[in-house]
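Before relying on records like the one below, remember that each one covers exactly one chain. Contacts with other chains, cofactors or solvent are not represented anywhere in the record.
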Amino acid sequence: MKTVKLLLGILLISVGIFLLAVPGPGLLVVFAGLGVLASESRGVAHLLDRSEIFARNWWHKTRNRRREVPPGKSIHPRRTRKGR
């Protein structure tokens, strides 16, 4: 059973890499393959955990950067901070 899961994971990763070049859900299939491999390999599971933490931190930093308002600017286009 372990061999079948390893082969399925490698197959999904290979198909996902191919789908990156053509229209299709390439990243989704690659991550599914990594998930299958992670169920059988502690090293792959650790790698996925670390990459998830990195992706979440990057997402929060990017999201918060967009929300920052420069000094003297207003979120509302008709109002300014000086004109209140």
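Residues 55 and 61 are 10 Å apart (CA to CA).
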